[in-house]
Amino acid sequence: MAREHVRLTDAERKAQRRRSIAMGVFLAVLAAIFYIVAMIKMGSQL
């Protein structure tokens, strides 16, 4: 079975990069929100 490689155009590569960056930013913001909420909850128990 021969493997075929997909060749992306420049526009497709740029779009893929933008999606990857957006996903990374989204995950970083989500992690920051969880961290802040955890700190607030732990702070209120003192």
Can you describe this structure?
The chain contains one helix and no strands. The chain is mainly α. The mean pLDDT is 92.
Key features of this structure:
46 residues; mainly alpha; 1 helix
Q: What's the alpha carbon Rg, rounded to whole Å? A: 20 Å
Structural class estimated from helices and strands: mainly alpha
For the biggest sheet, the summary is:
none
| Topology order in helix (H) and strand (E) letters | H
- Tell me the helix content: over 70%
Query: What distance separates the N and C termini?
Result: 64 Å
Label the overall shape: rod-shaped
The whole-number mean of residue pLDDT values reads 92
Uncertain residue segments: none
Record the SSE blueprint:
Elements: H1 10-44
Concise overview:
The protein is an all-alpha fold and 46 residues long.
